[in-house]
Amino acid sequence: MDEGLIRNTPDLKEACDALVAGGVAALDTEFVWRASYRPHLAIVQMAGADGVCRALDCQLGTDPSPFAAVLSDPSVVKILHAAHQDLELMYHYASAAPVNVFDTQLAAGFCGHSSNIGLQKLLYEVLDVGLAKTETCTDWSQRPLTDAQVRYALDDVRYPDAYGDAEPDEMWKRVKGNARRLPRRGLAGLRALAAVRERRAIEWNLPRGWLGDDASLVDLAWRLQHGETTFPNVRFRHRLKNNAQRDHLAADYAAALMEAAGLSEEDWPFPIQPDYPAEVLDAADKAYEYLVARGDELHVDPAVFANRAQLLAFVDDPEVPDNPLAEGWRFEVVGRTIIERFYVP
Question: Is pLDDT above 80 for 254?
């Protein structure tokens, strides 16, 4: 089939067969996110080794099975730019975990560019290609899609456990603002509140922020920290239009706080980032200077080695689990030297 919009399962099967035959699939997505728990996938752009670019309309009820087979096929390299959100959307659309992924944004960090560089800038710097962005703010939910929309979408693929939902009980770690100042008893309350918000957001298919902003949850958690054990009046900032949902959620929050109030100290969570002593903070600053210098030497963005939190944790304790600096190529290239020069016993 030629370039253009895929509107049915047979055409999708043909397009996916071509991707498998060539062993390469350049992918991108366009989505709409207005008033739902997660974005609605509108189209998936795809291009193969044959250079043919196609776009799958995801709102026409096409069977995604052929596309799922491409995502899970280890013989097909999936090429994306800033891949995480696109892969998450495709995972939920096709119910298939992607394997053998090459992220051009991450790869750019290993080639002297910023590891956060956008596709438009990367194409211009490397290939001297100017990528039009005339449809950046387009409404991808409108049908039919215009020729200009389809051309714009295809340009994004012309040149070129991680995806499932987080556990509700872990969502407190993503709460921003003064959450980091909460002592452990307050963190127990925050954990309970964030879990309630997440579960209700999924159940009601609403953005989690509509069910209470982060500042509201932190304020409620401080009430627990200050010794409250009953919560007859729970107030929180929200965007719920349904009064019954608001009242139900307030009752859920109150019950969650009361349950957290009954926990023993051994069941309180620990802060995500501990308060490091001054000597560790100073050593981490020097270790970061080393990472920058090492990155310049190797023409690598130092951000691909580790972020600030990972570097701090490694300088404080090289044995901390799951730290990227503690294993693999990062350990060999920079981790071993960091231990030798900057580790604070």
Answer: yes
Note the pLDDT tens digit of each residue in 202-226. 999 999 999 999 999 999 999 999 9
Which tens digits make up the pLDDT trace of 23-43? 999 999 988 888 888 888 888
Q: What percent of the chain has pLDDT over 70?
A: 88
Q: Domain limits of the chain?
A: 4-158, 168-267, 278-342
Q: How confident is the model at residue 161 (pLDDT cuts 50, 70, 90)?
A: very low
Task: Name the strand (E) or helix (H) holding 13.
Answer: helix 9-22
HSE, CB side, 13 Å, CA atoms: give it for residue 67.
30
Q: Count other C-beta atoms under 10 Å from residue 126's C-beta.
A: 14
Residue 101 pairs in a beta bridge with 78
Give the single-character DSSP code of 102: E
Question: Rounded CA gap, 132 and 112, in Å?
Answer: 24
Rounded to a whole number of angstroms, the distance between the first and last alpha carbons of the chain is 64
**Helix/strand/coil for 179:** helix
168-267: CATH architecture: Orthogonal Bundle (1.10)
Fold of the domain spanning 4-158 = Nucleotidyltransferase; domain 5 (3.30.420)
> What is the per-residue burial (b if ≥16 Cβ within 10 Å, else e) of 250-280?
bebbbebbbebbebeeeebbeeeeeebeeeb
Closest CA to 307 of 286, 290, 324, 295: 324
